[in-house]
Design brief:
Helix content is 76%, strand content 2%. It is built from six helices and two strands; from the N terminus they run αββααααα. It has helices at 2-16, 29-43, 48-63, 79-108, 112-136, 146-183; strands at residues 20-21, 24-25. Strands 1-2 form a two-stranded antiparallel sheet. A hairpin with a 2-residue loop joins strand 1 and strand 2. Helix 3 runs antiparallel to helix 4 and helix 4 (79-108) runs antiparallel to helix 5. The longest helix has 38 residues, at 146-183.
Amino acid sequence: MKNSILHMFWGFIIVLIDTRIETFDVLLDPVGYLFIYIGLIQVSNISQRAKTGLTVAFILIIMSIPAIVMDPNTIIFGFWKFYFLAVNILDVVLVYYIFLVLIELVESHKEFELKIRTEKIMKAYLAIILTVIFLNTFSLNFSLFIWLFALLGIVGLITHIVFLVLLFKFRNLGDQLEKNTMEG
């Protein structure tokens, strides 16, 4: 299980970091989603929710291919703006299913304190990221409030980092859960 959590962790790191040379994404988002997909495959035998996450991750592997050569931040309107909005929303859905997988794992091993913390982080993550995505759709119309959108970007980044820290903590828990399963 440690490897599955690490695959998901590094997959999200690859997707989160957008390093570009001109418009080419050096850290390919499809590769990041592939890592997440591999991590979900490894836990799908013990989590039903991971199977749904697999479907979302597979869709994102395919849908993120145009992001390799197109910078979503430079697209102002049209089909591609809606396309990248759909990718962002699917990314949130994927994170939601990973949260459900994590909650399922701690429930099965009676780690109720960690379950409560994970649920709180999940609710905050979803509320913040969906608000950022929603308000970002108006960013072009409200250029006077550029500071607000910069602040929202920072809050969104911090929210992603909190999720990554939680996911990374689960890698340590993975060893403990596997050890408890072998002993019990």
